[in-house]
Write a structure and sequence with these properties.
481 residues; Lysozyme-like; 3 domains; six-stranded mixed sheet; 8 helices; 21 strands; PGRP_domain_met/bac; N-acetylmuramoyl-L-alanine amidase activity; PGRP
Length: 481
C-alpha cells in the first residue's frame, strides 16, 4: 500500500491535509496528489504516521523552480530520510528537525508522499508547516542535497594537506568553468591519479597552497573535491574570492566532455545554487571570459555559453598597436608591477582628431615631442584615445609610463587626444575611456579598489581639462577630496 498526504485547497476554504490510500495496482498516481503551494497561506497540522517514511518530493524539473513565489516547508519535530519514488517523482530531500526549506513556486505541484517503512525508521509524529517566505527571502531557492552529485572526498583520492587555507565567503557571484588541458580519464583509478598529478603540479611547480580548483570532474562523471565549498581557490586571477571554480579533466578545444561529465557539471551548478554557495542571479563563465586564455576549450565553451546565466560578453575596446600607428622604438623599458592603484586621465592639450589617419599622425607627433624635446624614453602615456573612439597603444599594459610625477610606478595613464578645457570629448572617446577602465579591471591591471583621478588631482596642472574632469569626477572610484 502507498499512502499520500495530499495538501489541497478549495475555493473559499482553508488549506488542509488529507490522507489518501492507493491500493497496489491502482491507476491513480502522484499526479492526483498535487497542490500548488504558492497559493497556500500559513498552515500547520499534526498527524500520526506509524511505521512509515516521509518523503517530500516535487514533480517539476529543477530548472522550473526558479520563477514565481517563495514558499517554505518546515519539519518541526522529527527528521525524515530521503527516498526516491519511482512513480512520477523525480527528486526528494531530507527533512531535518527545525529546518525550513525554501523554494520558488508558481504553478508547480508538490507532493508529500508517504512510503512503507522497512523497519529502519519509525516516525510517530511529524508536524509540518507551509508558509510564504518573508520578503527578504523571496530570492532564496530551495537548499537540499538530493540534486548534488556524489563527491569523491580529498581523503578518498588521497589529497595532500594544503599549505594554507583562505576561507571563501559565500554566496559568491561567479561559477567558472575550466579544463585541465591535458589527458582525460574515465575510471576512478585513472582520475585519482590525474587529480593527484594536478595537485602536485600546482603545489610544487607553481608554489600554490593546494590544488587550484574547488572541484574537478572526470570523464566518468565523478566529481572530485578540490578545495571544496568553503575554501578560496586560485583558478581565476581576481575572481577567486567571488567564485566557485570547477575543472573538467581533459582538453576540450576540439571535443566536448562525455555526457556523464556534462551532466555532473550541470548538477554541480544546481547543487551550488541549492546549497547557497552561489547567489540566485549567479554568473556562469568560462575562464576565457575573465582572463587571457583559451580555457575551458572552444568545444566546451560553445556548450556552456548556451546555458542559463551565462556571462554577457565583456566588450574590450579595439586597441591600435604600436606597429599599426608607426611608433618609434623606445630608448629603454621599465616594467610596471601590476595591479596598480591609480587610473589617471589626461588630455593632450592639442588639436583633436576623428579619423585613423589624423589620429595616427597626432600620436606620432606626441611621441616625437616626448622623446626629442622632453627627453622621455618613449611616449609618456600607457594608452591614448582618439575622437573616433580608437584606443592607441602607447607604452601598453606592462611598461611604466612618464605621465604623472611620483605616480608612474603605481598607475595606468590614459590620454584623450584634444583640448577639453571648454569642450567635451566625443561620445565615442568617452565610451572607449569607460571600456578601458573596465578592461584594466578585468585584466587585473588595476586593483579592485582602484582610484580614478584626473592629472590635476595629483599635480599642478589643469589637465585633463575642466569639461573632461567634470565628467569623470561623477564616475565610480573617483578620488575623494
Amino acid at each position: 500500500m502507498r499512502v499520500f498526504v495530499r495538501l489541497s485547497q478549495h475555493i473559499n476554504s482553508k488549506p488542509h491535509f488529507s490522507l489518501h490510500n492507493n491500493p497496489v495496482g491502482s491507476t491513480e498516481t502522484t499526479n492526483q496528489a498535487r497542490t500548488t503551494l504558492s497559493k497556500m497561506t500559513t498552515n500547520s497540522r499534526q498527524f500520526l504516521l506509524p511505521s512509515i517514511l516521509l518523503v517530500l518530493a516535487f514533480m517539476a524539473k529543477p530548472s522550473d523552480a526558479f520563477t514565481g513565489e517563495c514558499v517554505c516547508v518546515q519539519a518541526k519535530t522529527i527528521a525524515a530520510r530521503w527516498s526516491p519514488d519511482t512513480n512520477n517523482v523525480t527528486y526528494g530531500f531530507i527533512l531535518n528537525k527545525g529546518e525550513c526549506f525554501k523554494f520558488l513556486s508558481s504553478s508547480y505541484s508538490y507532493t508529500l508522499a508517504l512510503q512503507e517503512n522497512k523497519g529502519k525508521l519509525i516516525i510517530p509524529r511529524v508536524d509540518l508547516k507551509s508558509m510564504k517566505c518573508p520578503p527578504k527571502q523571496e530570492d532564496t531557492v530551495l537548499r537540499y542535497n538530493a540534486l548534488c552529485p556524489s563527491i569523491r572526498s580529498r581523503a578518498e583520492w588521497k589529497a595532500r594537506k594544503p599549505k594554507s587555507v583562505t576561507k571563501l565567503r559565500v554566496p559568491v557571484e561567479y561559477f567558472i568553468v575550466h579544463h585541465s588541458e591535458g589527458r582525460n580519464c574515465s575510471t576512478t583509478a585513472g582520475c585519482d591519479k590525474l587529480v593527484k598529478g594536478i595537485q602536485n603540479f600546482h603545489m610544487d611547480t607553481r608554489g600554490w597552497a593546494d590544488i587550484a580548483y574547488n572541484f574537478l570532474i572526470g570523464g566518468n562523471g565523478e566529481v572530485y573535491e578540490g578545495r571544496g565549498w568553503t575554501v578560496q581557490g586560485t583558478h581565476t586571477k581576481r575572481y577567486n574570492s567571488k567564485s566557485i571554480g570547477i575543472c573538467m579533466l581533459g582538453s576540450f578545444q576540439k571535443y566536448v566532455p562525455t555526457p556523464l561529465a556534462m551532466e555532473s557539471l550541470k548538477k554541480m551548478i544546481n547543487c551550488s545554487l541549492y546549497k547557497g554557495q552561489i547567489i540566485p542571479n549567479y554568473t556562469l563563465a568560462g575562464h576565457r571570459d575573465l582572463g587571457n586564455t583559451d580555457c575551458p576549450g572552444t568545444a566546451l565553451y560553445n556548450v556552456i555559453k548556451k546555458w542559463p546565466h551565462f556571462i554577457k560578453k565583456i566588450m574590450y575596446p579595439i586597441i591600435r598597436n604600436r606597429t599599426e600607428w608607426g611608433a618609434r622604438k623606445p630608448k629603454s623599458v621599465t616594467q610596471l608591477k601590476v595591479p596598480v592603484e591609480y587610473f589617471v586621465v589626461h588630455h593632450s592639450a592639442t588639436g583633436s582628431c576623428t579619423t585613423t589617419e589624423d589620429c595616427d599622425k597626432l600620436v606620432r607627433s606626441i611621441q616625437s615631442n616626448h622623446m626629442d624635446k622632453r627627453d622621455f624614453v618613449n611616449i609618456g602615456y600607457n594608452f591614448l584615445i582618439g575622437g573616433n573612439g580608437v584606443v592607441y597603444e602607447g607604452r601598453g599594459w606592462s611598461v611604466e609610463g612618464a605621465h604623472t610625477k611620483h605616480y608612474n610606478s603605481k598607475s595606468i595613464g590614459i590620454c584623450l587626444l584634444g583640448n577639453f578645457m571648454n569642450e567635451e570629448p566625443t561620445t565615442e572617446a568617452i565610451e572607449s575611456l569607460k571600456e578601458m577602465i573596465k578592461c584594466s579591471l578585468n585584466k587585473g591591471q588595476i586593483s579592485d579598489n582602484y582610484i580614478l583621478v584626473g592629472h590635476r588631482n595629483l599635480g599642478d596642472t589643469e589637465c585633463p581639462g575642466s569639461d573632461l574632469y567634470n565628467i569623470i569626477k561623477e564616475w565610480p572610484h573617483f578620488i575623494k577630496s
